[in-house]
Amino acid sequence: MQDTLLIALFALLGAGAAGLVGALVLRLLRHRSLVVTLTVVAAVAVTAMLAGTLSVAWEMFLSPHDLKVVTIVVAMAAAVSLATAVLLGRWVAARSKALTEAARSFGDGGSFAAPREPGSAELVSLTRELEETSRKLAVSRERERTLEASRRELVAWISHDLRTPLAGLRAMAEALEDGVAADPARYLRQMRTEVERLDGMVGDLFEISRIHAGSLVLTPSPVSVYDLVGDALAGADPLAREHGVRLVGDSVDAVPVDVDSKEMSRVLGNLLVNAIRRTPADGTVAVAARSASGQVVLSVTDGCGGIPEEDLDRVFDTGWRGTHARTPPAGAGLGLAIVRGIVEAHQGRAAVRNVAGGCCFEVTLPTAPA
Ligand SMILES: Nc1ncnc2c1ncn2[C@@H]1O[C@H](COP(=O)(O)OP(=O)(O)O)[C@@H](O)[C@H]1O
Ligand SMILES: [Mg+2]
User: Fold this and answer.
1) Nearest bound ligand to CA 245?
2) Per residue in 51-85, pLDDT tens?
3) What domains does the chain contain, in order, with CATH numbers?
4) pTM (2 decimals)?
């Protein structure tokens, strides 16, 4: 019994010493290839066994013959385990190299194609993670591309839209200058209208650039949603009459909000102009406001017949304007981008959904603290 304990003790001492040396070597080599590390681990296992055996033999528990036998057995085990370690190490290294190459291809702009042969469980889970990341990256690249396309179109339209009224203004100014205008007063009125239109376009551009630059400065003050909506309806009334569209605003709660009234009027104005322009004559545009759990939801519902599902996500993009609209686009596609920018600067949200016969734009704002 005592012998057994002593044998265990000496074997432990020998193996422990070998293990210690092995741990130091592993620490030094920890950044080297997996093949090296695995080989060291296998070597440590064999050396620990050999060291244990030798220290037991040293204390005369083994005859020289037994020692020889054990050493040969250990040597064979060493050969086999080292070979296994090298093979395993090379296999894992090859899988990880294949994964590295696949990852490089998607970093360079391609999409990630998982290596055909799966590796160890860790590599498989890393592969899954990379596939997911690659998918997200593809979505955001696509989004980036469409936004870029919208911006390019915006510049083209703006230049075109600015040029048309400018050409008209020049022609009218020349006619007045040459004294060939039949009705100078009408020319002057027309020129003022054009100048106002240009002013509106430049104002929109200025607003969107302030939103994008993050330099939109708000001066919030407590106002009632009821007053905001009332003013917006009054402002949109002439346009509604012109289009034969009925404006309804009878379900508006008098909820207090803390907003920049000038900017918020612009939000409601843009939503109303869009809604009126896209609702056929005799149709109705309804404005509502209801408060719920610390928020007020302002909605503008029109009779446009609905926005195609695939466009719903894009209507708020800068420079995007629909081609399916009932009426030809009247603006440069900035109106809703401005709406979203101003609403988000107020810690609110702007959204759109289709409803029966039309669509409903919703602006959610936090209500003013009582
Ligand atoms: N009330 C609405 N009903 C239907 N479609 C709308 C409405 N408001 C906006 N849209 C769609 O969203 C696009 C972008 O709107 P907006 O940013 O105001 O630009 P614009 O009015 O200059 O076209 C419009 O071209 C139109 O296709
Ligand atoms: Mg618009």
Assistant:
1) 1
2) 888 888 887 777 888 888 888 988 898 899 999 99
3) 2-119 (no CATH), 143-213 (1.10.287.130), 221-366 (3.30.565.10)
4) 0.69
